[in-house]
Amino acid sequence: MVYTLEQNFLALALWAYTAALAAALVFLWTRGPFSSRATLVLCGLGAGLQVAGLVMRSIAGGRWPFASLFEFLLLFALGTAVSTLVVAARYRLPEVTPFLLLVVVGLMAYASVIARPAEPLVPALQSYWLQFHVATAILAYGAFAAACGVAAVRLARGRGANEKSLPGLDRLAHRLIAFGFAFLTLVIITGAVWAEEAWGAWWSWDPKETWALITWLVYAFYLHAYTARGWRGRRAAWLIVGGFAVVLFTLLGVTLLLPGMHSY
Length: 264
Hints:
Elements (H helix, E strand, L loop, with lengths): L1 H29 L2 H29 L7 H22 L6 H17 L14 H30 L8 H34 L7 H22 L4 H25 L7
């Protein structure tokens, strides 16, 4: 019964996010305040339903939902949804919602395809370091998704009537990347500690570890280029979009194409 409730909550969350995406696309066309508010309300509703589904999963499994690709996709989608609400409402940037909700709907849709009941943790996952590792990854990936959305808005606006707002978008994207980069650093550190505890080695050049390091280097290069080289505008925005593409490949591409010791 608990698993049925979990499925129902997550299915409703996907529908709410899809409706929010539709409202966001309407906003892009009409620029109306009603569609903008509807987008945020539906996104918030989807996040609430998703939290309820994750709570049901935790109850059913007797553990935190941190142990599989399915669960990480749900958490990644939730982190991105929350970042959507924060960026759109706090910084009055509703144009970011279509880009980010497309990511949320995509993650939720793929998660629905690979859904399965919660299972007991294997010995290698029975560690508090797993919880820290996954929690920091959600914060990092959510921030990188938000930065990608801001960069997409930056590219869409280009030059012209909104030119005065462009430096603000550059600064916002930079702050989001800096936040995400700090937590990505913690992802790598906690992952190394966990790996030593579970497998007896801090680093083994597993494909997931290698691509996590590549992701870190991409964002380190962006921060260096922004701070030391003065990169702004479209060049920096494209680098942010490319960095998020590397994030998605690290999560999904490596898992599907370059399997290693990591299950996700």
